[in-house]
Design brief:
It is built from five helices and five strands, in the order H-E-H-H-E-E-E-H-E-H. The chain has a single domain, classed as Divalent-metal-dependent TIM barrel enzymes (TIM Barrel), CATH 3.20.20. The chain is α/β, with parallel strands linked by helices. The longest helix has 12 residues. The chain starts with a helix and ends in a 5-residue tail after the last helix. The chain has a three-stranded parallel beta sheet with strand order 1-2-5. It has a two-stranded antiparallel sheet with strand order 3-4. Helix 3 packs parallel to helix 4.
Length: 117
């Protein structure tokens, strides 16, 4: 894929990535696996969840939801992100929203706070 070519043809000493976990999953990639492959090359991630109704695609289509309410395996992804050297985590949700935006981020924060050591 284009993603594989981009990763393979860029110099790890010069190029780092900011990985959007929701879009990676929507494209059929396993975010935890991608993070492991990119160890040391991902500085930041977009923490985004998608509903189970999201079908694998490459046309920028997904059914977004609050973090923890979708199909991403955060119990695997978050440790993989830390092991890969990720330093910045940006919680993000795209429309259409199923609830008020502040309510949505409060839900995501509540879910993610369970993973804090």
């Amino acid at each position: 894929t284009g993603w594989d070519i981009l990763v393979a043809q860029t110099d790890p000493a010069l190029v780092n990535f900011e990985l959007d976990l929701g879009w990676a999953a929507a494209a059929g990639r396993n975010p935890a696996t991608e993070l492991a492959k990119l160890k040391g090359r991902v500085n930041a991630v977009h923490v985004k969840d998608i509903k189970a109704t999201t079908k694998t695609n490459y046309v920028m289509a997904q059914d977004p939801t609050e973090v923890g309410a979708g199909k991403l395996d955060w119990a695997r992804i978050l440790p993989a992100a830390l092991a890969a050297g990720v330093q910045h985590f940006y919680v993000e949700q795209e429309p259409p929203f199923t609830m008020d935006r502040l309510e949505a981020v409060t839900h995501s924060y509540g879910f993610l706070s369970r993973f804090v050591a």
